[in-house]
Design a protein that fits this description.
Length: 264
């Protein structure tokens, strides 16, 4: 018998081995009944798939076919939760935000926070002083102008808003402004230019610790600035700048920093 196995054609051995190889999308563990697909909301039974990336990351119905990108969007990993990150946007509705100011109109479409309609901001109900913020953003324009948005941090004066912007630094999102490019602090600090353009998603990270404000765009440090004056705790506010703007945000994650600068 041993001799027969040794002399078996390599092709037969490969077929045998392949028959025990799991699909790259199928879990080694059987799906558990009565789970809910995080994308469609459909019930997932034992006949449907469990998707993994090295380990089980969740259940998904056959309709969604394990779109890992969507599974990760607007969610915190176990590691992020342990590090103290919180979601600024749940991917479903405007929970966690104040009533939009002035003309801006905000909605949630396919897990994306979308703003349009004219000048205004959408501000968090929570206030932050020292924190790290990271998010994905995309801007465009429905007319003939370029997209224009921004992120106000430590924003105050929102209840008295009458056509002016919140008090607090504004991190610019404008890929065509020659003076204050995306990642700049409006009228305070210019940014190193990186390759971003209207209609394309990009990642932004903002770290505010005491007077220090640092901004990364697509993992590249573009701005380092010292804020002047008293440092106040305030809202994080997303901006719509003009009538034909279309601004989009997702994966908004905030990590309050309690003991100062702990980011490398």
């Amino acid at each position: 018998m041993l001799h027969a196995l040794k002399s078996a054609p390599v092709a037969i051995l490969l077929v045998i081995a392949h028959s025990f190889t799991l699909s790259p999308h199928a879990s080694a563990e059987a799906p558990i009944a009565n789970k809910v697909c995080p994308l469609s909301g459909n019930a997932v039974d034992a006949k449907q798939w469990t998707f993994t990336e090295g380990k089980r990351v969740g259940f998904c119905c056959a309709k969604c076919k394990g779109n890992f990108t969507k599974l990760r969007e607007n969610r915190l990993s176990e590691g992020e939760q342990q590090e103290g990150w919180v979601l600024g946007f749940n991917g479903k509705d405007l929970t966690g935000f104040q009533k939009p100011t002035r003309d801006g109109k905000w909605s949630v479409e396919g897990g994306v926070l979308t703003g349009t309609g004219g000048k205004g901001v959408l501000a968090t109900t929570a206030n932050y002083d020292d924190f790290t913020l990271q998010l994905d953003a995309r801007i465009s324009d429905k007319g003939e102008r370029r997209g224009n948005s921004g992120i106000f941090i430590r924003g105050t004066g929102l209840t008295a808003y009458r056509g002016r912007w919140p008090d607090g630094p504004e991190i610019q999102i404008d890929h065509g402004d020659g003076n204050f490019w995306t990642g700049a602090i409006w009228q305070k600090a210019k940014a190193k230019k990186v390759s971003t353009k209207d209609g394309e998603w990009f990642q932004m990270k903002i770290e505010a610790v005491g007077p220090s404000i640092r901004v990364w765009v697509n993992d590249e440090l573009v701005t380092a600035h010292k804020q002047e004056g008293k440092i106040l705790s305030g809202a994080i506010a997303l901006q719509v700048h003009h009538q034909t703007d279309l601004v989009e945000f997702k994966n908004i994650k905030i990590r309050p920093l309690v003991e100062g600068h702990d980011e490398k």
